[in-house]
Design brief:
Blueprint lengths: L1 E10 L2 E11 H7 L4 H11 L3 H8 L11 H10 L4 H10 L8 H14 L4 H10 L8 H13 L5 H10 L8 H14 L4 H10 L8 H13 L10 H10 L2 H13 L4 H10 L8 H12 L6 H7 L3
Antiparallel strand pairs: 1-2
Helix pairs in contact: 2-3, 5-7, 6-8, 9-11, 10-12, 12-13, 14-16, 15-17
């Protein structure tokens, strides 16, 4: 069936003439979008390609057009988002263009900006969890941020942790995180040590409590590092960073160079961070020093740090 379409529509401050002459309706299904006017708007205002625009608008459930998407884009520009950042957000969730700036967007973004998150940080936050864009300020963001603020000595550290893991702001964050904080305290972690762990490995408190507890016990029993030792923190950093299979592989490298398990565990106990070194680096260090008769094995754990 051949059809001819000619329509003139306004979106925001832009006008579009959408027309097609003599095309098959079956063919059109695969080459156009349900919302051609919005696709044209994305191409002209944010530099979308035709394919990108059609892909974005396909995420909408209806052909309804936003009343004034220009206000949404203007707001993002006012909070110093680059055009590429705005494009990323709209690409993920074109529903943003239907938002009420004053009632929905402004309170949410201002709350996050007040806590020290910048434009690019906000984009990464919402890209990792797009549903966060539709959560309330007072019911979600502010309570979560206030809870997290108590765990950090400065907003700078808080922002660093959120940048590494935006999921710290996930729903029910405090309920999810608090059991891990209590567990760490049971193992002797001071507040500064907890903060340091959160800055370096924020995902630790987003795992299941049993997972973290197993890691803590392994540091104490397998590596034989007492929770009272200053090295316990580094043992935890090491074991939360690598899997059990990776530890076995690295032990195998030492064994291939003639090391017994007792000597290997001594190295891991004295310098647990060597567990996070690459296998290639460990192999190179061992190959280099194996022929040095003046190098005592008891000092190799120091050399391996470099």
């Amino acid at each position: 069936m051949l059809v001819r379409i000619s329509k003139f529509r306004h979106i925001g401050n832009n006008a579009y003439l959408f027309s097609s002459v003599g095309f098959s309706t079956d063919e059109a299904i695969s080459t156009t979008t349900k919302n051609p006017f919005l696709s044209d708007y994305l191409i002209k205002s944010l530099g979308f390609s035709r394919e990108e625009a059609n892909s974005a608008t396909a995420k909408l459930n209806s052909m309804k057009l936003p009343k004034n998407p220009d206000l949404v884009i203007k707001f993002f520009q006012e909070i110093c988002l680059e055009r590429t950042d705005i494009k990323k957000l709209v690409s993920i969730t074109p529903q943003l263009l239907f938002s009420d700036v004053n009632r929905t967007l402004k309170p949410k973004f201002q709350c996050l900006i007040e806590f020290g998150l910048s434009g690019s940080d906000l984009v990464n936050l919402f890209r990792s969890d797009v549903r966060a864009l539709f959560r309330g300020v007072d019911s979600h963001f502010r309570p979560n941020l206030e809870y997290l603020r108590k765990l950090f000595s400065s907003e700078e550290c808080l922002v660093k942790a959120i940048k590494k893991s935006p999921w710290l702001l996930a729903p029910n964050g405090p309920k999810q995180i608090n059991p891990k904080i209590l567990l760490l305290q049971r193992f002797g972690f001071s507040n500064p040590k907890i903060e340091k762990l959160l800055v370096q490995k924020p995902r630790v408190v987003l795992q299941k409590t049993g997972w973290l507890e197993e890691k803590l016990h392994r540091v104490e029993k397998d590596l034989q590092i007492s929770p009272k030792s200053g090295m316990f923190f580094y043992g935890v950093i090491a074991l939360v960073s690598v899997s059990n299979s990776t530890v076995k592989k690295k032990m195998g490298i030492f064994r291939s160079c003639g090391w017994c398990d007792l000597d290997i565990m001594t190295v891991f106990r004295k310098q647990p961070l060597c567990l996070v070194m690459s296998e290639a680096k460990i192999q190179r260090a061992l190959d280099f020093f194996m022929g040095d008769s003046d190098t005592n094995r008891n000092t190799w754990f120091v050399i391996l740090r470099f």
